[in-house]
């Protein structure tokens, strides 16, 4: 929420009654504007509207109104107060006037404040996507003094969409003074966040802190009281049912407005259906299954009813509901290419690459949500300023638009039919527990692995030693690997036997090197984001794996073992195109990828935190980024990435695969071989030669990875 600064410091104005003939001095009028802003900061928005509306009338024709900032500054604050009083059409008219005056008078800061409040207007009208695009458009331009309000507004829009962890990241990045904010709106949004993340005590504490600072006439007081009651409701000794928890979450996600009455009707209807039926056999294709809390309630209800097949359908949706709401591997816009080049330059010259990455991510979010609002999930959306007029009502999703992506279609039946001698493992979470759903031999089984923190700790003990290349595996590492195997696979192994596996992971697992788990050594494992992804990419096996056709072999200048590795592979592929030294530049490699059926790339890999599509491989003329692959008209059927970290962030929160592996799969590759952990320079070359010799001999990629590369941390992504 963007409250403009007072136009001048002043004490509270003298009491005024409607119809009084008062002094028309400029000082008195400016004092009224100042007081109106202070009323808004105290959450007394009805009084703000009355005072600023009357002051706006009194300013007509007064010389002080000719001062550049007075009228647009008043209208910016009046428009926001109208929003929070539920008078959205009046708010739009006043904010449009403020924006027009700011542009006419050359006031960029006030223009941005008006644009930010117009973004809030879109949010309160139920169009969070337009709001997110508007806030990201402002992010690179706003001065530091206004960034707290922008972070809070963006976090609230993300919460309205159900993107809880993304909202947490936005708040964590906020420019809070002295490490902590005392703003009522910031504390209330943070309280909502803790409530949605399950920390009811922290949520109640923050809400109580706001409530104690304001009187009963303040909107902040009323909102804090409401949040505190919701937090205490979930903290009661009697646990809430899945539907009750979802109802609480949906109500908490509603933006901070006096008109909020809870979840939208369609979502309330879906929860009523779940409560009445005790968990439907499968998600309805006409229901709002894209909402995360509805999906979570459906999953937990199905598990409570013992219906593992229904749980599989809900678990599939738990990984796909966010796809329309988050920028996927191919999202880009008019400005993202230049910002990617800026990030590339920052890497080369050792500048602040993290800041460049944040700018690029913000532009990508803006492009994605502008395309989503326009109903065009494909190409780059047209540029649009934050202040352009949003629709008064949210348009219905067009056929083929991102809002149509991920609608529920039954997956369990086709999956069981096509698995053959394989087993499918879907990892998910329910009511604080890690759960694995096992589809095997015509049936689906549900197995609880235990509390999420315990499973996550076991996995961290296993992965942590692997992150230090060259460390020999000692007794502690072997014990940790055995513990992780029991935690992740113990209940599933009696069901799957020695079958090959197709594994759909979950963000709470991170990206473990599955082939390094003792029970999976030598066992073919395909990693996929969803069951639907595997079904769409799976091909019926022929009499044998086809011999690779056009082959591309690339060796980056570093590390030293890359050139040796590729030179030895060239003996196995006499007709291969080999790029090394100065020939291994970004343009040559991208062109080669577009013409090959199998590609092998050896070099240094890097993945920045929170920006997996800026994962890079160092080439002779600088880094090639994962996002560079989105421009390719085609990619090889099989790609081998002999680099560190290139399999990282595949199981991200989006439901769509990201990083280098995800970008290649999104661009059309069927299989990507990559490592989510560091790769040692010594020994990898020989393992890669054995792997490729197996491919030449007709061994399928998953089997060749399992036998020759799994112990080194490499995984087989895709079908």
Describe this structure in words.
This protein has 719 residues and is of the alpha/beta class. Helix 12 runs antiparallel to helix 14 (292-304). The two termini are 46 Å apart.
Q: Please compute the radius of gyration using only Cα atoms.
A: 28 Å
Strand content: 5-15%
Uncertain stretches: 5-23, 258-263, 377-406
Structural class: alpha/beta
Total strand count, please? 14
For the biggest sheet, the summary is: 11 strands, mixed
Global morphology = globular
Whole-Å distance between the termini?
Answer: 46 Å
Residues in helices, as a percent range:
40-55%
- The chain-level mean pLDDT equals 86
Q: What key phrases describe this protein's structure?
A:
719 residues, alpha/beta, eleven-stranded mixed sheet, three-stranded antiparallel sheet, 14 strands, 10% strand, globular
Write the layout of secondary structure elements.
Blueprint: H1 26-41, H2 45-59, H3 70-84, H4 88-104, H5 108-124, H6 128-138, H7 147-160, H8 164-172, H9 184-196, H10 200-212, H11 219-234, H12 242-253, H13 265-277, H14 292-304, H15 308-320, H16 336-348, H17 353-374, H18 412-418, E1 423-430, E2 433-440, E3 443-451, H19 452-463, H20 475-489, H21 493-496, E4 501-504, E5 525-528, H22 531-537, E6 551-555, H23 560-570, E7 577-579, H24 586-593, E8 598-602, E9 605-606, E10 616-619, E11 622-625, E12 638-642, H25 659-666, E13 671-674, H26 684-696, H27 701-708, E14 715-718
Parallel strand pairs: 1-4, 4-5, 5-14, 6-7, 6-8, 8-12, 12-13
Antiparallel strand pairs: 1-2, 2-3, 9-10, 10-11, 13-14
Helix pairs in contact: 1-2, 1-3, 2-3, 3-4, 3-5, 4-5, 5-6, 6-7, 6-17, 7-8, 7-9, 9-10, 9-11, 10-11, 12-13, 12-14, 13-14, 14-15, 16-17, 19-20, 23-26, 26-27
């Amino acid at each position: 929420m963007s409250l403009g600064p007072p136009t001048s410091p002043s004490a509270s104005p003298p009491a005024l009654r409607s119809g009084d003939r008062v002094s028309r001095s400029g000082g008195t009028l400016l004092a009224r504007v100042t007081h109106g802003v202070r009323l808004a900061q105290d959450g007394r928005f009805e009084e703000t509207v009355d005072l600023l509306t009357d002051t706006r009338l009194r300013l007509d024709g007064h010389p002080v109104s000719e001062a550049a900032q007075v009228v647009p500054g008043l209208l910016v604050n009046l428009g926001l107060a109208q929003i929070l009083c539920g008078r959205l059409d009046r708010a739009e008219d006043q904010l449009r006037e403020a924006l027009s005056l700011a542009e006419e008078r050359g006031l960029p800061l006030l223009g941005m404040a008006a644009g930010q409040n117009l973004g809030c207007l879109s949010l309160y009208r139920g169009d969070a996507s337009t709001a997110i695009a508007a806030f990201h458009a402002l992010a690179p331009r706003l001065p530091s003094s206004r960034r707290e309000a922008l972070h809070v507004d963006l976090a609230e829009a993300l919460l309205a969409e159900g993107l809880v962890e993304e909202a947490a990241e936005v708040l964590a990045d906020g420019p809070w003074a002295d490490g902590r904010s005392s703003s009522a709106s910031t504390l209330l949004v943070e309280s909502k966040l803790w409530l949605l993340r399950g920390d009811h005590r922290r949520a109640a504490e923050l809400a109580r802190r706001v409530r104690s600072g304001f009187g009963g006439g303040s909107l902040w007081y009323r909102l804090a009281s409401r949040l505190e009651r919701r937090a205490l409701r979930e903290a009661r000794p009697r646990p809430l049912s899945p539907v009750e928890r979802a109802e609480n979450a949906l109500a908490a996600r509603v933006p901070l407005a006096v008109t909020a009455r809870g979840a939208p009707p369609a979502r309330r209807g879906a929860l009523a259906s779940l409560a009445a039926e005790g968990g439907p056999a499968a998600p309805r294709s006409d229901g709002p299954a894209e909402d995360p809390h509805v999906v979570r309630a459906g999953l937990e209800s199905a598990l409570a009813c013992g219906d593992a097949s229904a749980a599989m359908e809900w678990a599939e949706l738990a990984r796909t509901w966010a796809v329309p709401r988050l920028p996927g591997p191919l999202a880009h816009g008019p400005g993202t290419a230049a910002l990617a080049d800026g990030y590339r330059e920052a890497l080369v010259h050792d500048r602040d690459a993290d800041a460049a990455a944040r700018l690029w991510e913000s532009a990508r979010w803006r492009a994605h949500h502008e395309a989503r609002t326009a109903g065009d999930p494909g190409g780059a959306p047209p540029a649009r300023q934050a202040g352009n007029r949003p629709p008064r009502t949210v348009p219905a999703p067009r056929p083929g638009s991102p809002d149509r992506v991920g609608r529920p279609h039954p997956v369990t039946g086709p999956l069981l039919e096509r698995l053959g001698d394989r087993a499918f493992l879907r990892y998910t979470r329910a009511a604080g527990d890690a759960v694995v759903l096992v589809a095997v031999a015509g049936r689906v089984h549900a197995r609880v692995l235990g509390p999420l923190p315990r499973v996550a700790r076991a996995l961290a003990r296993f992965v942590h030693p692997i992150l230090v290349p060259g460390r020999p595996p000692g007794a502690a590492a072997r014990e940790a690997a055995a513990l992780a195997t029991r935690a992740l696979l113990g209940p599933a192994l009696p069901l799957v036997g020695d079958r090959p596996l197709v594994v759909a992971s979950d963000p709470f697992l991170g990206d473990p090197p599955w082939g390094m788990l003792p029970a999976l050594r030598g066992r073919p494992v395909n990693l996929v984001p969803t069951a639907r992804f595997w079904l769409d990419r799976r091909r019926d096996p022929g009499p044998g794996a086809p011999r690779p056709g056009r082959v591309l072999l690339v060796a980056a200048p570093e590390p030293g073992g890359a050139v040796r590795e590729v030179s030895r592979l060239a003996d196995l592929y006499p007709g291969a195109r080999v790029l090394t030294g100065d020939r291994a530049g970004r343009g040559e490699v991208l062109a080669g990828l577009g013409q090959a059926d199998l590609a092998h790339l050896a070099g240094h890999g890097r993945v920045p935190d929170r920006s997996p599509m800026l994962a890079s491989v160092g080439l002779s003329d600088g880094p090639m980024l994962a996002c560079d692959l989105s421009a390719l008209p085609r990619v090889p059927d099989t790609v081998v990435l002999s680099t560190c970290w290139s399999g990282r962030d595949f199981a991200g929160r989006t439901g769509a695969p990201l990083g280098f592996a995800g970008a290649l799969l999104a661009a059309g590759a069927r299989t990507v071989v990559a490592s989510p952990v560091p790769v040692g320079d010594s020994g990898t070359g020989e393992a890669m030669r054995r792997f490729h010799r197996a491919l030449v001999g007709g061994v399928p990629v998953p089997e060749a990875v399992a036998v020759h590369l799994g112990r080194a941390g490499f995984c087989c992504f895709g079908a």
